[in-house]
């Protein structure tokens, strides 16, 4: 069953920020046409229905093409994905390789790899280990599409102009508003309302548009190609993969932050935050939601 759509009227809003990371600048006015957005990210159960009906195989389930990864070891060209593994203690936060591990066999069915919890144990969690072409394929099957970065940010802001959709404080009155890292990154996570890793969609409060998990839980794919800053010299061009392979040299803009975002490392659990990700990336903290034209 597809996720319920919430119709948004569109309008103009201030996109971006000059208060945090340089890639969020400059702040500028953007006009968004009316559209509808899924109330929550696509879940494991929903993605399983798509796979069962179509026989689709995700990027993480296919061997990597040696021509696209010159110099890569043969052992790294087998099907798999990146899995977050907490470190044993404090580490240099400039080296992400200390907590991201290439894991053969990791895919949407077994996000942490063989032997870890399967999707069947977490049917209402956001699907992860989905690369950009996988998200685009699901959207086509659903008769929908992936959002542009501007549409996504408009939906996440929900008419607000504050740092977070719920105000200026990350935890107003001590209340946890999104699934983000709790503790010392990347070695101690006490859990967000008890959840270490992804949480069932809708565990945390919705924004003013009634949308859940726009902030935290999983990063979400957009069709906008990532640049190191917002380009005002020309409108951002959607970059889609209608049916071809993922291009590891092309980076899409991710939005929303994830359960791995911590203030000392990745203060990106905000609507204006953005992150680059190559189209072929399949990890334990990236998912997606679809939108539709009105």
Automatic annotation (TrEMBL):
Coiled-coil residues: none
Q: Which residues form the Sulfatase-modifying factor enzyme-like domain?
A: 2-291
- Any one Pfam family match given in the protein's UniProt record, by short name: FGE-sulfatase
InterPro entries (UniProt xref):
CTDL_fold, Sulfatase_Mod_Factor_Kinase, SUMF_dom, SUMF_sf
Q: Which SUPFAM superfamilies match?
A: C-type lectin-like
Query: Gene3D superfamilies this protein is in?
Result: paralog of FGE (formylglycine-generating enzyme)
What molecular function does GO assign, one term?
A: formylglycine-generating oxidase activity
Instruction: Specify the protein name.
Output: Sulfatase-modifying factor enzyme-like domain-containing protein
> Could you tell me which species this protein originates from?
Mycolicibacterium pulveris (Mycobacterium pulveris)
């Amino acid at each position: 069953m597809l996720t319920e759509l919430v119709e948004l009227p569109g309008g103009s809003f201030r996109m971006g920020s000059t208060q945090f990371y340089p890639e969020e600048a400059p702040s500028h006015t953007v006009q968004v046409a009316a559209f509808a957005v899924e109330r929550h990210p696509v879940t494991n159960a929903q993605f399983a229905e798509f796979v069962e009906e179509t026989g689709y195989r995700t990027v993480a389930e296919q061997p990597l093409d040696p021509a696209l990864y010159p110099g890569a070891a043969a052992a790294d060209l087998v099907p798999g994905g990146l899995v977050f593994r907490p470190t044993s203690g404090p580490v240099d936060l400039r080296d992400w390789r200390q907590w991201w591990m290439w894991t053969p066999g990791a895919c949407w069915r077994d996000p942490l790899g063989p032997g870890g919890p399967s999707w069947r144990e977490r049917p209402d969690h956001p699907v992860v280990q989905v690369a950009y072409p996988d998200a685009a394929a699901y959207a086509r099957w659903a008769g929908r599409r992936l959002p542009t970065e501007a549409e996504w940010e408009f939906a996440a802001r929900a008419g607000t102009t504050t740092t977070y959709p719920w105000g200026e404080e990350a935890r107003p009155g001590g209340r946890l508003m999104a699934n983000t890292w709790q503790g010392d990154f990347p070695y101690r996570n006490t859990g967000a309302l008890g959840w270490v890793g992804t949480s069932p969609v809708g565990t945390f409060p919705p924004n003013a548009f009634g949308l859940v998990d726009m902030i935290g839980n999983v990063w979400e794919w957009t069709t906008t190609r990532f640049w190191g800053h917002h380009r005002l010299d020309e409108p951002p061009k959607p970059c889609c993969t209608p049916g071809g392979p993922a291009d590891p040299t092309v980076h899409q803009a991710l939005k929303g932050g994830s359960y791995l975002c911590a203030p000392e490392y990745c203060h990106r659990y905000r609507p204006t935050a953005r992150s680059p990700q190559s189209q072929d990336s399949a990890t334990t903290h990236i998912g997606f939601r679809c939108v539709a034209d009105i």
